[in-house]
Amino acid sequence: DIQMTQSPSSLSASVRDRVTITCRASQGISNYLAWYQQKPGKVPKLLIYAASTLQSGVPSRFSGSGSGTHFTLTISSLQPEDVATYYCQKYNSAPFTFGPGTKVDIK
Amino acid sequence: EVQLLESGGGLVQPEGSLRLSCAASGFTFSNYAMTWVRQAPGKGPEWVSSISDSGDNTFYADSVRGRFTISRDSSKDTLFLQMNSLKAGDTALYYCGKIRSGIATAAINHWGQGTLVTVSS
Q1: Which residues pair with A105 in a beta bridge?
Q2: pLDDT tens track for B38-77
Q3: What's the rounded Cα separation, in Å, for the pair B63 and B83?
Q4: Chain B residue whose CA is closest to A93
Q5: How far is CA B91 from CA B5, B28, B96, in A?
Q6: Which residues lie closer than 8 Å to A57 by C-beta, 6 or more apart?
Q7: Which of A43, A91, A94 sits opposite B113 (nearest CB)?
């Protein structure tokens, strides 16, 4: 099975900072990758699918890139409401594995 | 507005069974694949199972294959997860999810609020 890893596992940044989270697949998955945001005590929310397509209603400060085995989620200007854990998920084929998550908070 | 309402969770003894349901509304249920994702306390989401729009194709995580069965009733707009031979490691909040496509190889664009399953003696 393809393994998903994320780095860093956690980060602390200042408001308006640019934040980048990396997700890697152990084998190529083309662009079959989604990013989700989960705020404390809340349900996961789809941010990006097909590696770089912004889900409707998601602020434009979120962006995704990558293909194959290396993907990034970027928050161009971190806001207080972005405090959350971010997960990537592969969906090219089963098992549709999630990454271990990256916890983002405000410095 | 898409709504997914899970039910059927509860406390069950090891080796017991539960059947989860997810009542869907706000979209044409028969056009979309559906999925179950679970999240143990303090852990990240774990994909459990998915089913295509027609129900013809089902997929399972290795951890549940042979014990769990996913199904759907498009006449009732409802998704099910039959869980047998439950183990302590199955304890989690179980989310129902709507997939963006009729096939399972797409992202989850709507999530329910979840139903809690606790396996303990």
Answers
A1: A12
A2: 999 999 999 999 999 999 999 999 999 999 999 999 999 9
A3: 12
A4: B105
A5: 19, 31, 16
A6: none
A7: A43
